[in-house]
Design goal:
The protein is α+β, with helices and mostly antiparallel strands and 166 residues long. It is built from six helices and five strands, in the order αββαββαβααα.
Length: 166
């Protein structure tokens, strides 16, 4: 586990943020290893250019979900791989589009009561109860969940090209 400050830098785009955080997390762990491949990742929700990270509390989660209700938003997942022995690194990001249907206040409060929103970008987990009011419009579901597997495969091929050829 890596302890990385997830605060966006002034003027930092969402794309740059998720890649920077994925790289920082992977690098932080790789410095404690002598071998192996370390994967770092980060995911943010972006609504009208506003980055929605992990809510600090229930009120912020409610505010985020209300801002998403009835609207489309992007989910960006950055991934970085570091070969601990050599320090070689590759990184990239994946993007998906999600639509949240309008939900009434009792439904919102019931979702918040479940605590599923804790530690989740945009205050939701599409693979959980939020799947009842979120629809994947484009991209891959695993990007929204936070680990775009196809991207990880592509990065492994870039990091270890000789192993991929066999």
């Amino acid at each position: 586990m890596a302890d990385v400050d997830e605060t966006p830098a002034p003027g930092e785009t969402a794309e740059a943020l998720v890649v920077r955080l994925a790289r920082a997390k992977a690098s932080a762990v790789a410095t404690r290893c002598t071998r192996g491949c370390v994967l770092g990742g980060d995911t943010v929700v972006v609504r009208d250019g506003v980055i929605l990270g992990k809510p600090a509390d229930r009120d912020e989660a409610a505010e985020m979900l209300r801002s998403l209700a009835g609207r489309r938003h992007a989910v960006l997942s950055g991934v970085a791989l570091v070969d601990a022995a050599s320090g070689r690194e590759v990184h990239d990001l994946a993007a998906s589009q999600v639509v949240m249907r309008a939900i009434d206040e009792p439904t919102l409060q019931a979702y918040l009561d479940g605590d599923e929103w804790r530690g989740k970008a945009g205050a939701y987990a599409i693979q959980g109860d939020a799947g009842a009011f979120m629809t994947l419009e484009s991209g891959a579901l695993d990007t929204v969940i936070g680990l775009p597997v196809q991207l990880v495969r592509q990065l492994l091929t870039r990091l270890y090209p000789s192993e991929s050829a066999s």
